[in-house]
Amino acid sequence: MGTTASQLAKDSLSEYQELTFLTKQEILLAHRRFTELLDRDERNHPNPRVPMEVILTLPELKSNPFKTRICQVFSTSEDKDGSLTFEDFLDLLSAFSDSATLEIKSHYAFRIFDFDDDGTLDYGDLEKLVNCLTGETEDTRLTSEEMRQLISNILDESDIDKDGTVNLSEFQHVISRSPDFVSSFKIVL
Amino acid sequence: MTIEQQRQGFAFTGSGFPTDQESLRFRWASSRMSAQIYHEPNSGTSPAQEEEQSGSEPTRELRNMVFPMALKKAVRQVQQMQAPAQFSGGSWKQKKTIFVRKFKSNVREFLYFFSLWGKTLQKIGGNFGGGVQSYFIFLRFLVVLNFVSFLLIAGFVLIPSIVFGSVDIKPEISEANVLSAQIHADCLKYDPNPQGLVVFYEFLLDLLSGTGFMEYSYMFYGYYNNTVVVTSLVGSDFSYNIPLAYLLTAVFYFAFCLICIIARMGKVARVAVTTGGSDVRSYSMIVFTGWDYGCLGSKATKLKQRNIYYRLQVDLEEERLKKHAASLTLCNKVTLYSLRVLMFFVAIGLIVATFVAIAYATTFSQENNNVQGFLGLFYTYLPSIVITTGNFLVPLLCDQIALLEKYPPSATVVVALLRAVVLRLVSLGILLYTLWNQIECHGSTDTCPCHYNHNNYQCWETSVGQEMYKLTLFDLLVSIALLVLVEFPRRMVVDHWSCKLTQWVGRQEFVVPSNVLGLVYGQTVVWTGALFCPLLPLINTVKFVILFYCKKITLFYNCRPALRTFRSTTSAFFFLAVLLFGWILALVVMIYSVAEIHPSFACGPFRSFLRMWKIVPDSLAILPKGTRDFLFFIGSQAFSVPLFAVSCVFMCYFIALASIYGKSVAILRAQLKLAGQDKQFLVKQIEKMKLLSPQDNEGKQD
Questions:
Q1: Residue contact A133–B305, C-beta within 8 A
Q2: Looking at CA atoms only, how far is residue B412 from chain A in angstroms?
Q3: B383-394 burial by CB neighbour count: b if 16+ within 10 A, else e?
Q4: How far apart are CA A15 and CA B87, in angstroms?
Q5: pLDDT at site B6
Q6: Angle subtended at Cα B634 by Cα B628 and Cα B639, rounded to the nearest 5 degrees
Q7: For residue B195, with 0-12 CB atoms within 10 Å meaning exposed, 13-18 middle and 19 or more buried, which class applies?
Q8: What is the pLDDT of residue B260?
């Protein structure tokens, strides 16, 4: 009890407030939930890193079809294994918070949907995206014919420069027309 | 590098696009143009947030960076070394906007918790799609509308009548309002109270048909008195004119319903325009913005996934059908269109046959009014029976006809709705018309001293109210009977007895258009009858609540998810438009009753007036001169013509604004396209430079 790792220092708190869209209460709550995920010995570590499987036990993320992608996008680990430090966790909550701007949200949404991390959404990315959205149970899976038709329609609508992929500005163009993207791209602890 | 070579280099981008040089020039010109119209790209920041931006620039920039935390910290350190930190923890404006935003979202969540049947609607939408969900949303809207209308009527008519009912005022007939000096004694006869003992089954009959003990009660028009209460207490000047309150409440009830319908149509139209007007974008919108990250739990997630799947499927199917229709040969097209014309005439024939049957049944029922017992009950219910049978059979036949016509799904829904609308509302109109023919008598003053058919109807308003009450009740009874006697057995037969016939018939599908028409029909009946039966909105509220639960039960137990679903955004608008039709019909009826027919002499609040409407000019005459002149001025042409002109000016302004926004969106789209081409051009240039520079180096070295 009382070690610096399990309590946020005051200047870190104000620094985090400046660098993220979270309020003081939200940062403190995030810190508490994050430390609950740690083991006893990890809590004394100065900058603990939580593996992806443990993060995915959070109820807010557990049933989200994009949970692995979310962890991978916000993770700063060199092994690309989706593990998060506390600061990565704050980045995640900041992007998904109430007050984050449309630009931030659309940028991160693009990165989450980019399954192969190549900077554009091509056919494979879109196919995986649609499968995540509809679930992959027997009665909600689109046939390959329907999938082909759907993805060619999506590319027709959003691919403005006709290069066969959707890049970030084209994606943001589609997002900006949606009235409730900002309110649906939200995770609150 | 010549321009031709550059042009060839870009041949693969398509001949339609301008070349790279032209694109840069266009971009510069169009950016100047768009800068004039559109100050800066609005990335969803509210005006308050823009204020914050100008007020606390360094902090905003850091938060808006899409870097991991470690990088942001480094940038911040650099910035702090360059300039001392001035803002600590945000300005007051920031805090205020955050507080307002949180408050709004809290209020929204609170209201959502209170919204009626919210979770049920979500469950229905996830399991059966948006079309079925829109029916239940419409039903919920009608329940709330009826309940609020009942509160309105109760507050202004029912409660004052009850309170002042204890005041014993004899109904007087003011001489000045009656044209003839002598009223026929028969006109004043009205004795609705049952004589002697009431047999038990008669009680049930009375409950079902609104006669007997129910006739002379707060239920119907005939019970209300034309009391005008004027208190002469010291210090207070309270007066309450019950007839005036009755009429004005009816008028405000209609106005209130109209405002609710139009407001809701506006809300639905806005959604339909932003999503449906950009029909082109519908797939990308669903896929990129469709997921709700706040879904908690695997059940909600599965529901949402099913929802999205249905939406995608509907759109894909419509597109396939459109392509198929476009690829038909000329011969196929001719046969299809001639088939459609033939089916159109068949449908019209069916509808006209129903109208004739209804007119005949109503006349027959009114002629045999005096038969007692269950046969009498059957005769009084005959119009309702014929209407309900027609409304049940004819849409079934029209559905079979629609299968032959092969319209695309949303057009099928619209056509089915139109046919059913014409059927239901005009059949109701025919019923009312025959009823009115019975009530009015067209003879001279000798044969018709009371100006209405007093032999059959001593209190004609109550009779009309009873007819509307019977229609409402019968509708509910038939729905429940269908549920119990047809739908449950059908499901049990299909589930437990597998033979070819049952497989072909299959489990029931929830057909939305005919159900919506049932709701519109019920609501129109209530609007028509509200003037004559003030408690009808309350009965309708209870009826719709019972109907909600019955339909929900049948949906979950007996129905299978529809194989063909339809788009729900435009259909919600259409339901409200059809409801507006019903409202207009009821309005016509009300205006005719208020302005054209002589109220009964023997009952009701208007017994001493020539027309129901006459009470308003009489009351206006009592008002002080200033108010009277003001009201007359508002109604005159000197006021309404300038008002109309000003409304036209505002409308032109909004139309111009809308067209400007549309143009700027088109310009920005074109800009985005050109920006993509510029990027490609620059990449190509870089590659070319790379190829050139090693050659130059080699040249120099040699």
A1: yes
A2: 23
A3: bbebbbebbeeb
A4: 12
A5: 39
A6: 140
A7: exposed
A8: 92
Query: What string of DSSP letters covers B634-695?
Result: HHSHHHHHHHHHHHHHHHHHHHHHHHHHHHHHHHHHHHHHHHHHHHHHHHHHHHHHHHHHHH
- Is pTM, for the whole model, over 0.80? no
- Determine the distance from the C-alpha atom of residue B117 to the mean position of all C-alpha atoms in its chain, rounded to a whole number: 18
* Residue numbers in B near A87 (CB within 8 A): 68-70
Chain A residues within 8 A of B306 when measuring between CB atoms: 135, 140
Ramachandran class of A117: left when φ > 0, alpha when ψ lies in -120 to 50, beta otherwise: left
> How many A-B residue pairs are in contact by the CB < 8 A criterion?
177
Q: Which of A96, A126, A148 is the last residue in one of the domains? A: A96
Contact criterion met (CB below 8 Å) for A5 and A48: yes
The B residues from 213 to 252 touching A (CB cutoff 8 Å) are none
Among A96, A114, A144, the domain boundary falls at: A96
In the predicted structure, residue B2 carries a pLDDT above the cut 50: no
* Predicted-complex ipTM score: 0.90
d(C-alpha B506, C-alpha B433), whole Å: 41
What type of residue is B273? V
Label residue A58 exposed, middle or buried (CB < 10 Å: 0-12, 13-18, 19+): middle
Closest CA to A82 of A45, A119, A56, A109: A56
Q: Which of B455, B466, B439 is nearest to B384 (CA)?
A: B466
Tell me how crowded residue B252 is: count the other CB atoms within 10 A of its CB. Answer: 14
| Domain annotation covers residue A1 | no
Average pLDDT, chain B: 75
In-domain check, residue A3: no
Query: CATH number for the domain including A161?
Result: 1.10.238.10
Q: Are residues A108 and A135 in the same domain?
A: yes
Q: Does residue A7 lie in a domain region?
A: no
Give Cα separations from B24 to B30, B463, B667, B676 (angstroms). Answer: 10, 79, 15, 11
- Do A111 and A176 lie in one domain? The reply is yes
Q: Does B283 touch chain A (CB under 8 A)?
A: yes
- Whether B272 has a pLDDT exceeding 70, the answer reads no
Same structural domain, A57 and A133: no
Could you give the CA distance from residue B452 to residue B500 in angstroms, rounded to a whole number?
60
| CA nearest to B475, candidates B383, B602, B601, B397 | B383
- Which of B657, B604, B478, B572 shows the shortest CA–CA distance to B133? B572
Kindly tell me if the per-residue pLDDT of B651 is higher than 90.
yes
CB atoms within 10 A of CB B134: 26
DSSP state of B218: T
Domain that holds residue A115: 103-185
Instruction: Between B242 and B564, name the one with better pLDDT.
Output: B242
- Rg for chain A, CA atoms, rounded: 19
Which residues neighbour A77 within 8 Å (Cβ) at sequence distance 6 or greater? Answer: A49, A83
Sign of CA dihedral B133, B138, B142, B144: positive
Domain total of chain A: 2
B156-165: average pLDDT: 81
